[in-house]
């Protein structure tokens, strides 16, 4: 069965950050630091999904989706990241999962979507190797409670983005500016993934995935220096987080003057390369790369022109999704079935024909990738609701449903009805 879904993330929608025993996350801390988030916005209330989840499940049911990708807030389950379990936190997700199942909507649960418990960050966060084991312990706790109903599990969301924005550049929580010294974050996230896969399997999980943000990389010209720069960027953005999963090795990092990945111990790569039931892919746009103008990194982002752009300024290139999927299939003999776990755009207004066209064109590109032999089994539109868009606060609206953040009134947009028509006209049109 092809999965038609929509997606959200805990910190972006739940609110209730200090209710029922939830501990603080790095995003609670970061958002309350002046200058970190546009206009000082925080996720303290967000979409108030913690209290309004039943209404949101009804919206999903009316939309016609058969799956819903959401994340669990680690600090709602384990306020300090490890140790005592907060029963009320698990109770919330228990109610949500029951509500989804009652409507025939399959829960697709992501264990980590960037909201690390602050207590673990205080111990070094993902720079601390010990966190990989804590993550596996957390996975086991959630699986024990919800595993009888949740069949599809996603360990991590976009470890590349979390490493780069959170630890290398500091534009996301926890706000570190370690640059290439942040590379241990990549390894520890991937090691945590592998250990979590083992824990989930032990708990009887039926399908286990990881979600990577991937991008087609375009050289700005045929000049050898531009091609080499594009290859270097491809290594950092795509291969660093796919190769260990699918080949059991890290890619050549010599373009970054790195002989080997830091922190790798015997057996780590075998743990990371646990067999997967699918690979989640988040796609938004390609990346155009040129030779470096400085010696800081071996590439420059050259930008993409000549395409429509979203309200976020991202280029809209639907065929990039086809290009990405076909290239993954060509690169990896071991590529498992693929699920598009995020795809969507920021656009203002209730009459959002722009988003309807965006979704339609990307679904056509997905269909073409299937025609070219890629095994794609699901598509999750980002996002169900307008929500807290990280460092942009509430300024970027990705939702199929408009949220008035003052009143919490939900209003389905034209794209909500357009996506519903896509689903109704072909439960598996590919």
Map the helices and strands.
Layout: E1 3-7, H1 10-13, H2 26-31, H3 49-63, E2 67-71, H4 74-77, H5 87-102, E3 106-112, H6 118-121, H7 130-146, E4 152-157, H8 159-168, H9 183-202, E5 207-213, E6 217-219, H10 224-247, H11 268-272, E7 278-282, E8 287-290, E9 300-301, H12 319-331, E10 338-342, H13 353-371, E11 376-382, E12 401-403, E13 410-412, H14 414-424
Parallel strand pairs: 1-2, 1-11, 2-3, 3-4, 4-5, 5-7, 6-8, 7-10, 10-11
Antiparallel strand pairs: 8-9, 12-13
Helix pairs in contact: 3-5, 7-9, 8-9, 12-13, 13-14
Q: Give the number of helices.
A: 14
Number of strands: 13
Which percent range fits the helix content?
25-40%
State mean pLDDT (0 to 100 scale).
Answer: 97
- Beta percentage is 5-15%
In N-to-C order, the SSE pattern is EHHHEHHEHHEHHEEHHEEEHEHEEEH
For the biggest sheet, the summary is:
8 strands, parallel, barrel
N-to-C span:
11 Å
Widest sheet, order of strands = 1-2-3-4-5-7-10-11
Evaluate the radius of gyration: 20 Å
Low-confidence segments: none
SSE-based structural type: alpha/beta
Shape, per Cα inertia axes: globular
Features:
globular, alpha/beta, 14 helices, three-stranded mixed beta sheet, 430 residues, single chain, 13 strands
């Amino acid at each position: 069965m092809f999965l038609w879904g929509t997606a959200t993330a805990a910190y972006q929608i739940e609110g209730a950050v200090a209710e029922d025993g939830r501990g603080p996350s790095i995003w609670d801390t970061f958002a309350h630091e002046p200058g970190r988030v546009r206009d000082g916005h925080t996720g303290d209330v967000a979409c108030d999904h913690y209290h309004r989840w039943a209404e949101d499940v009804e919206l999903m049911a009316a939309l016609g989706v058969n799956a819903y990708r959401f994340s669990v807030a680690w600090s709602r389950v384990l306020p300090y990241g490890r140790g005592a379990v907060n029963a009320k936190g698990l109770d919330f997700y228990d109610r949500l999962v029951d509500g989804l199942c009652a409507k025939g909507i399959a829960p697709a649960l992501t264990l980590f979507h960037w909201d690390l418990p602050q207590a673990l960050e205080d111990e070094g966060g993902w720079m601390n190797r010990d966190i990989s084991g804590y993550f596996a312990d957390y996975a086991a706790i959630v699986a024990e409670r919800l595993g009888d109903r949740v069949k599809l599990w996603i360990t991590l969301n976009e470890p590349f983005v979390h490493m780069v924005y959170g630890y290398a550049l500091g534009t996301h929580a926890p706000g570190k500016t370690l640059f290439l010294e942040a590379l241990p974050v990549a390894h520890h996230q991937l090691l945590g993934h592998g250990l979590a896969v083992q824990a989930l399997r032990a708990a009887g999980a039926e399908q286990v995935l990881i979600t990577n943000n991937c991008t087609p990389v375009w050289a700005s010209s045929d000049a050898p220096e531009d091609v080499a720069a594009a290859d270097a960027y491809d290594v950092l953005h795509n291969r660093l987080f796919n190769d260990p999963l699918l080949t059991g090795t890290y890619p050549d990092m010599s373009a970054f003057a790195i002989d080997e990945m830091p922190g790798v111990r015997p057996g780590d790569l075998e743990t990371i390369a646990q067999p997967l039931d699918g690979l989640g892919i988040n796609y938004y746009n390609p990346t155009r790369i040129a030779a470096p103008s400085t010696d800081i990194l071996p590439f420059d982002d050259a930008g993409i022109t000549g395409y429509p752009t979203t309200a976020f300024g991202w280029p809209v290139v639907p065929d990039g999704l086809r290009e990405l999927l076909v290239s993954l299939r060509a690169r990896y003999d071991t590529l498992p079935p693929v699920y598009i776990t995020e795809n969507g755009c920021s656009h203002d207004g209730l009459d959002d024909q722009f988003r309807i066209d965006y979704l339609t064109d990307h679904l056509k590109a997905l269909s073409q990738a299937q025609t070219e032999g890629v095994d794609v089994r699901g598509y999750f539109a980002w996002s169900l609701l307008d929500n807290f868009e990280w460092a942009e606060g509430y300024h970027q609206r990705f939702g199929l449903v408009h949220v008035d953040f003052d009143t919490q009134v939900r209003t389905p947009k034209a794209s909500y009805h357009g996506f519903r028509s896509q689903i109704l006209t072909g439960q598996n049109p590919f």
